[in-house]
Amino acid sequence: MSAKNSRETVSKFTKPLPIEVIQLPAVYPQNPISWLIAAISFVSQVITIRNKKIHVIFDEDDCSFKVTSKKDMDYLWDSGFYGKGSLSRSEPTWLLRAQKRILGVEEPKTTGEEIVRYRRQLRGEYKQERNKLLQLERQYKLENNEEKLKELESMRQKLSEQRDRISKAGPPPTPTQSTSEEPKKSRPEDEELIIDSRTLRNIEYLELTPCEVLFLVYMDAIEIDNSNNDNHPFTTIELLKYLVDMFGEVEPNNYLLIMYAVYFHYKSLGWCVKSDLKFSSDFVLYQRGPPFHHAAFAVTVLQNSSKEPFKNWTHFGSIYRVVSAVKKTMVLCYIDSPTQEEFSKVWDGLDKKDPEGLIKLLNLYTIQEMVYKRWTPSRTRM
User: Fold this and answer.
1) Is 363 within a domain?
2) How far apart are CA 12 and CA 105, in angstroms?
3) CA nearest neighbour of 283 among 357, 222, 369, 358
4) Known catalytic membership, residue 286
5) Is the pLDDT score of 7 beyond 70?
6) Number of structural domains the chain divides into
């Protein structure tokens, strides 16, 4: 994106977790003024700090976790890039794009979708120019016109520079006054979204994965109503047992437990972990987050003690072709599950009031990683 590594982006995304932390200035025992400054800072932060947990709606019909408040959606995304906009590529920006398209609101912020559309337009123009060059080159070769072929070298150099600029292209240019005054095309369904001349009804929500929900509940950042307990919020252990039961039998190889063990492993190492169904893997790992750079690794989870047959190397080769095409490193993550006896001992001793029981359960699993690379004989010969 154009905002990658910009000063505005770096200052905006500074929190890895949606948790407010009170930061006090240095206090010197022999200096009473430092105590006064610290007290004022503490009181001001307590007053302004966000002490309300984010409410997440659990839809049992489609087994999804949704955040509908625009303020909470932005807060979760800005504080660790959690969730995905239901009508967006990643960051929930549908409302901003709809306001520009339907209401003609001038907004300096450029969304990722707009940048992608602009780069695709530039890429299309580049391909047209490249095709023209190839046609001319073919024509001059048939005519055996050496002078014209030499003249094409400068054109080829310009095309090469144009191609390099596409990946670094910033936000699309602002439309001119004459362009902005043209009547905007609206669809019949757009009329149902308009509240007034400056406001639209937001129909987008932020959807969280089960792993993200369990992690945020453990961090005491969100709350989810439990319909089986008079709508009291889920505790960490209650949510864990509910999700494990929903994803299969209560056993060491439960799908949710396996995925969450890997998710928590990389989160504890400081990675930004997102779902990677788009590229045929289980997770992608960002060093900082989507606004800064593309994901560096695509993780495929394998169970050493799984009852399912081990997939052949043709399967992994297919995944690697997809992953390598988007310039990511493929990681095979092997996870060893505990025995049923070890698992049952910890599972039966879980206390719903003690969230640390989740960590005791995760400590039973062992994780090993291996980087997968395709060997190409023609590139590695001596």
Assistant:
1) yes
2) 23
3) 369
4) yes
5) no
6) 2
